[in-house]
Amino acid sequence: MSQELDFLIARAKSACEKAYAPYSKFPVGCALVSASGQVYTGCNVENISFGLTICAERAAVFAGVLAEGSEFKIKKVVIYTPTEVPITPCGACRQVIHEFGKEVEVVSVCNTGHPNIANLPFLLPDSPAIAL
What we know:
This protein is α+β, with helices and mostly antiparallel strands. It contains four helices and five strands. The protein has helices spanning 3-16, 56-68, 91-99, 120-123; strands spanning 29-34, 39-43, 74-80, 105-109, 116-119. It is globular. The N and C termini lie far apart (37 Å). The model has no long low-confidence stretch (mean pLDDT 94).
């Protein structure tokens, strides 16, 4: 693995350790790199009203938008879960990631350390290409 990927995995793991997941017991951490080269992290934060839960990926995206504003674009997303197999983003997160980068590389990592690498068009086929 590259030094950049090792760094991002470490950041995603660190974010995962801060997750608030008392209901699902499924912590997730995310680190993403913006087009400007900045790294943003997020963790899942659950709520007893499950629809109010925020995923790690969206938390990281929203941190990037807060920091960079409307020019924010995503280059790469790394997700860490303490599982035996890598977990890809949920559909809602895939759509939010798509909003800020159509060709994003998505890397999923688990306890085994073997990353699953996919591009967003594979994970979100036939996504709309609407220009505002």
